[in-house]
What we know:
Radius of gyration: 34 Å
Strand content: 25-35%
Number of helices: 13
Number of strands: 34
Mean pLDDT: 89
Low-confidence stretches: 1-37
Helix content: 10-25%
Amino acid sequence: MRTIYKTTIFLLTLFVAASCSELEDDDHYGNSDTVISNNELKIVNTSSEEYIKGRADLSSMSQLFQSQGIYEELARKGQLSTMLVVTNDHFKTPEDKTEFVTRSHVSDISISPANLEDGTRLMMWHGKYVNVVIDSLGRQGNIVDHILFNNGAVKEVVKTTTGYVYVISDMIQTPTSLYDFINDLDDNYSIFREMVLASGGKEFDRTNSKAIGVNDQGNTVYDSVFIYRNTFFESANFDMNSESLTATMLLPSNDVINAALDDAHQRLASWEMERPDSLMKDWILKTAFFAKRYTPEQMQTTEQQDLKSIFGTQWRTNVQQVDTSEPVELSNGIVYKVKKIHLPNNLLMYRLKDYFYYYENCTDEQKAQYFKAVNLNFKECNTEVAAWSPLPGVWPLHENRIIRFDKPSEIADADGFQLDFTPIKLNADGTVRPYLFPPGAYRFAMGSVQNQSLDIVVTVFAEGQEIAKSRAITWGTSTEFHYDRGTTLSNTHPEGYDATYVREVGGNSKAANYDTDGGQMMEELVIPDIKGDGSPVRITMRLTCGSWEGKTNVKIHHWCLRPTANNY
C-alpha cells in the first residue's frame, strides 16, 4: 500500500532587486567561449548541459544528472533553467531517494544573481522550494559565499545559453515539510504530535489508485493510494503539506505541556474555578501555527507584542518563553521549540457573570455583609421573564430574575441611595460564597430593568481600596441594560454560543438576547495585584444614585466581568 500527500505548486513571482554585482538578465553573450563580466560571473556561449559536461571537476554531478535523465528532460522541455551543482570534492552519492535528491538541483526558472532577494523561494524539480539567503555583503553586490541556496553557499555563477549554473559548496539538503516533521516527532513530543494528527486523517484517493482486479463480491480492488487531509487546518487555509506555505510552528514537548496544565490548575484552584484539560490543550494546538515566517527577534521580545495564530488565538511574545537559538528549518516553514507556556487568564476565565437575586440564598449575616444598603428596603426577588432557551435541548433555560429594593417612605428623592455589593457565587448545595477575582483587566457590564431612569455610578473596591469609578450611566429606556440583552457590545454571549447560527436553525428572532454580558459600565476595569503575588482578591461594587427622581424602587439583574486581551 502506497501513501502519497497532496502538494499544491504555485508559480514563483520574482521581483527585481537592487542590482547585485552589476548583473542584469540581458547581459549579452560574447563571441568567445568564455567572457568574464567580473570576477564572480562567467558568461559562456554553450548550454548548461554542455558546460557541466565539459568541466572535469563537475563530472560526478554530471553523471548523476545523466543517470536520472535530467539532460533528456531539459532537452525535451526546451526552456531556460537554473542548475545547482557541486564540484567532485563536495559530491556525495545519495544513499536513498536518488531521484528526489537529483531533482532538488534543477529548476524551470532561470534566475540571475541580480534577481535574487533574501527570502526568495525557488521551486525545484522535486516539487519543493529552495530558500535563498543573502547576507549584508551579498545585498551590497557580493556573490561568492554571501548567497546561499538552503545549505549551499554560492562559489561560482555561470550564465549559459540555456540559463544559469550555480556552483555551490554543498549538495542541496531539502528539509522535510511541516506535516512530515510533525509525523516524525519522537515520543518526547507525543502529546502535541497526536493532537495534530488526530485533527485530520487519511482518505482513499480513488483518482490516483489503480484498479487491479475484482474480488469475490464483485467489488473493484485497488492498489490503494491514500492522501492525508486535515479539514481542521484547511478551514484556516493552512495546508501543512503544501510547499507554497510559509509558516511558523511552535513546538512544545510533553514536559512543557504538562507543566502548563499544572500551573493553570494551580491558578484555577486559587481562584476557586475549574476548566477542562481539553479546552487548554485545544488552545495550545490552535496557538502553535502561524501563516507567516517569524524571525527569532519577533518570537521572543521584551516589549509586549501579540501574534495571532491561524485560528486567531493570542500569543504574547514577552510572556511566553521560546528557544530562538536553534530554529528548525523546514521546506515550508520554520519551527521554534517552546520552553514554557503560560495559559492566559482570558482563556482560563471566559467570563465571570452572576446575579443579584442570590440575596435570597444568603443567611441574615451574609445579607448584611454582602448587600450593605443605604436608603433601600429589600422588597423581593422575582422572576419577571420565565426561563427560556432559543434552542431548547441544546442551550440551557435562562430566566430573568431580579432583586427589587424599594425607596423608604421617610426619605426624600434627593437623598438617593447606595448599595455596597460583594459579588457572590451560588454553591451546588444552595449556599453562597464570595468571588475571588484574579488581578488583571476586565470589561465590566451590568443589567437592570428597562425604563428605570436612574443615573447610576459604580465605584469598585478591592480589599477596601478604591480601584475604579464609572461615569454616571442612565438605566433608562434603552435595552442596553435591560436584563441581559446587551444590545451594544460585541463578544458578549456564553462560551461557544453563536447567535446567528442559533437564530437560523432555531428560528428564534431573540437569539441574540440570550444570556449576554449586559450593558457596559466600564470599558476596562483593572484589578491590581494588591498582595504582590498574583493571588485573587474580593471586590465590592458600590452602586450610588444621587436622586430617586420620583421613582419608588430599583430592580437589578446581574453583573459581569469579562477578561480583556490584556488580562493575559
